[in-house]
User: What shape does this take?
Amino acid sequence: MTENHENLLAAFEVRIGDLMSFCNRLKEENAGLKEALEEKTSEIGRLKRMVEELNARYDNLLAARILSVEEGDVREAQQRLARLVREVDKCIALLNE
Assistant: This one.
């Protein structure tokens, strides 16, 4: 082999090594991203269950409050209802992140 061929072969080996190193880094990054995706998916599931639970509590409280509201308590009931709606909105905002 000529010296030129040997230089080309050495450069080729270096580039192959770099390419393999880059491929390994991409595999590691991909594994990390998959793990992060699984964590986010489980967090979304948890937050969805929380929203469902809060909606159920809200419905129960609303029904109980409607049954027990006297005429003078209507404004207070509306304020409570508004607070509950804000709480549900916060949970929905967390899901959308």
